[in-house]
Amino acid sequence: QRDVVTYNALLGAHARIGKDMSSAQMVFDQMTVRNLISWNAMVVGCVNSGDLDLARAIFDQMSERNDVTWTTMLVGYTKNGLMDAARVLFDAMPEKTLICWTAMISGYAQSGRPNEALECFRWMRLACVKPDAFATTSVISALAQLARPDLAHWITSLVDREGIERNERVLT
C-alpha cells in the first residue's frame, strides 16, 4: 500500500537524479495526500533538472514553505544568472539565512554585477549575519572584478576579525 512516505521516497529519488521530472510529476499527480516534503521534492527536482518555470509554478501553488523551499528556488535562480527574479524572491523571503545571502552575493558576482554583490554584502552585515568563507570568497570575486586591490587590507581584517576560516580560496 502506498502512503505519503512511499510517494515522498519516490519523489526524492527523482529529485536527486534531476533529469526528467515527467515521471516524478506523474507520481506527484497520483498522490491523494501531499505534505511539505512532497512539494519540496518537486521544487528541488525541477531546479536540479533546470526547469525553473515549473519549479516556480509549483512554488507558487504551495500553501506552506520552509527554508528548503525558499533556498532551493533562490539558488536555482542565482545559479542560472536570473538575478532580477532572485532579488524579487529574496526580498519576499520571511527569513534570510547566511546561505541565502551568500547565494545572492555569489550570483551577482558571477553575473558580472560586482557592485550589487558588494551592496548585498553590506546589507547582510547590517542584518547582523556573520559571513563565512563562501560569502567572503564571493566578495573577493566582486572586488577582483572592480580591480580594487586597495580593499585587500579591508577583507583581510574582516577575515581576521570575524574568525573566518582561511582556505585555498580565502586569502592564501
Automatic annotation (TrEMBL):
Gene Ontology molecular function, alphabetical: RNA binding
One record GO biological process: RNA modification
Domain of life: Eukaryota
Sequence ranges of the PPR repeats: 3-34, 35-69, 97-131
Assigned keywords, A-Z: Repeat
InterPro entries: PPR_At4g14850-like_plant, PPR_rpt, TPR-like_helical_dom_sf
Stored PANTHER family: (WILD MALAYSIAN BANANA) HYPOTHETICAL PROTEIN, PENTATRICOPEPTIDE REPEAT-CONTAINING PROTEIN
NCBIfam families: PPR
Listed name of the protein: Uncharacterized protein
Organism: Opuntia streptacantha (Prickly pear cactus)
